[in-house]
Amino acid sequence: MLTAVTGINWGDEGKGRVVDLLSDHADYVVRYQGGNNAGHTVVTDKGKFVLNLLPSGILHPEVVCVLGNGMVIDPDHLRHEIEMMRYMNVKISPENLKISEKATVCMPFHVRQDVLEEERLSKTGEAFGSTKRGIAYAYGDKYMKKTLRMGDLLYLDSEVIKKRIAMIVESKNGQKPLSVEEVMDWCKGQAEFLKPYITDTGVLLEKAAAEGKDILFEAQLGALRDIDYGIYPYTSSSSTIAAYATIGAGIPKRKPERVVGVMKAYSTCVGEGPFAAEKAAGEDWNDKLRKAGNEFGAATGRPRRVGPFDAVASRYGLQCQNAGDIALTKLDVLSSFEKIPVITGYRVNGKLITDFPTNVLLDAAKPEVEMLDGWNCDISSCRNWNDLPENAKKYIERIEELIGHSIYLVSTGAKRDEYLLKE
Question: Could you give the maximum distance between any two Cα atoms of the chain, in Å?
Answer without folding.
Answer: 69
